[in-house]
Design a protein that fits this description.
The protein is built from eight helices and no strands. By secondary structure, the protein is an all-alpha fold. The chain binds zinc ion (ZN).
Length: about 160
């Protein structure tokens, strides 16, 4: 979705004249229960034209592909299916965070007033982040990253 009715909020061209009320009304068009089911909510700022046309030094696609395939392999070896197919019950047994991770998640749920659905979805995403990093344990860093992908949840 666009950041505001005109689409230019935060754009370097400074064209947006939308008021905070207009922006809030626009964003409220996506219902809370729908947003709740979107695991990765990320703000993608507009790029100045110069950045679009220049070559960036990002990670090569084949490197990322290898990491994703290895993470999928880990998931199949551990539980016979990819993380996205895990049921709530399976998440409770297979996606257990370490002590620091658990306390961070509890804090986040309370402070951000997240739903039970969000709780399980954060654990599942954190499990995937840990798999991508080749970690057996879900740590506080993995939880923190998963929590920050829920930035538009309505309850905030
Ligand atoms: Zn605008």
């Amino acid at each position: 979705m666009n950041p505001c009715p005109c689409g230019f909020l935060g754009h370097p061209n400074g064209k947006c004249r939308c008021t905070p009320d207009q922006v809030a009304l626009y964003r409220a068009k996506i219902s809370g229960p729908l947003l709740d089911r979107i695991d990765l909510q990320i703000e993608v700022p507009a790029l100045p034209e110069a950045d679009l046309t220049s070559q960036s030094g990002g990670e090569a696609s084949h490197m990322i592909r290898a990491r994703v395939e290895a993470a999928r392999e880990r998931q199949l070896n551990r539980q016979g299916k990819p993380n996205y197919l895990l049921s709530t019950l399976e998440i409770d047994t297979l996606c257990v965070a370490d002590e620091q991770g658990q306390s961070l998640l509890k804090q986040a749920i309370t402070r951000l007033d997240l739903s039970a659905r969000a709780y399980h979805r954060i654990l599942k995403v954190a499990r995937t982040i840990a798999d991508l990093a080749n970690h057996d344990e879900i740590g506080a860093g993995h939880i923190a990253e998963a929590v920050q992908y829920r930035r538009f949840d309505k309850n905030r």
